[in-house]
Amino acid sequence: MITYCRARAMAAAVLATLIMPLPLLAQTPRQPIPLPTLCQVPDEFLADSSPLANSTRQLRTERRLKIVALGSSSTLGMGASGPDAAYPARLEAALKAHLPFAAIQVVNKGMSRQSARQMLDRLTSDVLSERPALVVWETGTAEAVRGAEVDDLVSALLTGVDKMGEAGIDVLLMDTQYSRSTARIINFQPYVDAIGQVAGMRDLVLFPRYLVMRTWVDEDRFSFTDKPTAEARKIADQIYDCLGRLLARTIAKALK
Amino acid sequence: MAATSRDLRLDFFRGLALIFIFVDHIPDNLVGYFTLANIVFSDAAEVFVFLSGYTAALVFGAILAQQGTTFAVAQVLKRCWTLYVAHIFLFVVFVAQVSYTAAKFDNPMFLDEMKVWDFLQEPHIAILQALALRFQPHFLNILPLYIVLLLAFAFILPALRRWPLSVLAVSAGVYLAAAVFRFNLRTYPEGVWYFNPFGWQILFLIGAALALTDGDGRRRLREWPGLIWLSAGFLAVCTVARTAMTIASFFDAVPAWAVQFVWLIGDKITLGPLRLLNFLALAHVTVSVLRKDHPLFRSAFAEPLTRCGQHSLNIFCLGIFLSFLGHFVLVEISQAIPMHVAVSAAGILIMFGTAYFLTWAKQRARPAGNAAAISRRLPQTAPQGGE
């Protein structure tokens, strides 16, 4: 599976390089931000995608970037040592390194165990009122655990994405978490595929968290097996930190 | 013995469908790219439901003709009970797997989200819901469909024999209504049946009606001028389009409009018209090319598949069980491509072996020749029509 996904991402990357307009290539290269070995994934996972137009505009004209992290338990940072260890806080820190001259703010709007449909209900109050340039929408896990209808996830996502698009907000989709024990009893793949399809339909940036985490698990980089609580918390912190760093890299890549 | 007149195609294709179901039910299995689902717009589920309808009409239609309506209805209900027990068995296997995982669950990042899994919170309710066929964990959704279809069939069969076209017209009406108004049965804790019985019933009844019409009826349908070319043409278009989509998906290059279009008219829940027509074309072309007496069905290659088809319920349950096991091996031991092939091959060989064992056990039981064994043999001796 991994090999196949790599081949697929590689093909996409080659294709993207061929059709990429020249001026983008001519842009001044940014300082490469180092990534801890623990976090590394094949470059193709964070493939070049459509640019984040609204975010780029805000960054250029106002020298700032405001992001809302909309999601469920794993946006909230469940299992980590505290809110500062959750991925949105780590994203903010990592993005500051990528964009040292801009004011970066990431607002955490995670809510425990929510489905995309439930998040839609608080879109106006939690997202639109914050007036961000970019929303990172983490979703799919609640649906997969409940075995909810895939069509319902798709229609909720499309509705939300379109509403945010009308409000001049870029949307980045993040799919589900991965762990061996849950993969045994829950079929995540249809939900992961559906989120990928929505990203394709609306030409959105996709952060393939499922694939990323799966790569780490397959290479035994993180393991919770037989770990005492304190140590397990530390591992969760590391994972969230890596996710924040990779996400920052993805966003920086899409700011053109 | 009358077994020589048995249409081995039924067993062969049912066996093939069971193998596909096993392979497709291991999530992410690369071998799954070579099953029907990635080549045409329909998959093994359609084959299974259609052949189930066909066989049900064949078997219970013959019982009805010989022993009367009441006895036939009783026999259908008895079969429903067997399917129900099999479903509960698979549910228990699933519960064992879930409880084992839950007891050893140690991932703090998932702990909160797993609380949604109400089943772990209130097992007493989940088990009652499972008994009511409302709790359908993933991959345990084909048998509930089969059970309710067969249950309804007990009462539809007498009418279907007398007024086949009227019954099919009503069936088509229900199918269209389910597609337009999107009504479906609910599941626990939320959601709807993965296989909407109001949609899928049409395929079951088409199969049943075809079995009940005499061989002459089927021949006239087969020889209807131009129909075979229409089927073959449509099947060719579907095959090219679906295979192209599979290949394009490797490069993330499936155009959004194609995805949306297939979603619109080819959804699996209500059996979208694209899936239905694709399957009917496939079935028509297949039976026209591969006639009943085709040497393929008596060949050594076909025999293991035919054996699987002859013990379809047992082999189906085994296949679901093995797909759980196969996924476990892939997740816990290795994801390498050779492992996908090895796990799939091992599972298929176990299914073949079991089918041969069941055949042997049944043959050994036969010479006893008591009344029960004879009545059990009845399905095989049922008249097969003139095809």
Beta-strand content bin of chain A: 5-15%
**What is the percent of helical residues of chain A?**
40-55%
Low-confidence stretches of chain B: 371-387
Low-confidence stretches of chain A: 1-7, 9-29
Q: Structural class given helices, strands, pairing of chain B?
A: mainly alpha
Question: What's the average pLDDT of chain A?
Answer: 86
Secondary-structure element pattern of chain B, one letter each: HHHHHHHHHHHHHHHHH
Largest sheet of chain B: none
* Envelope shape of chain A: globular
**CATH domain class name of chain A:** Alpha Beta
Distance between the termini of chain B: 19 Å
The secondary-structure element order of chain A is: HHHEHHEHHEHHEHHEHH
Could you explain the architecture of this structure?
Chain A is built from 13 helices and five strands. With 256 residues, chain A is α/β, with parallel strands linked by helices. Chain A has a single domain, classed as 3-Layer(aba) Sandwich (Rossmann fold), CATH 3.40.50.1110. Chain A has a five-stranded parallel β-sheet with strand order 2-1-3-4-5, with helices on both faces. The relative contact order of chain A is 0.17. In chain B, 38% of the residues are buried. With 387 residues, chain B is mostly helical. Chain B is built from 17 helices and no strands.
Key attributes of the depicted protein:
heterodimer, A: 256 residues, alpha/beta, 5-stranded parallel beta sheet, disordered N terminus, B: 387 residues, mainly alpha, disordered C terminus
Question: How do you describe this structure in short?
Answer:
The complex is a heterodimer of chains A (256) and B (387). Helix content of chain A is 54%, strand content 11%.
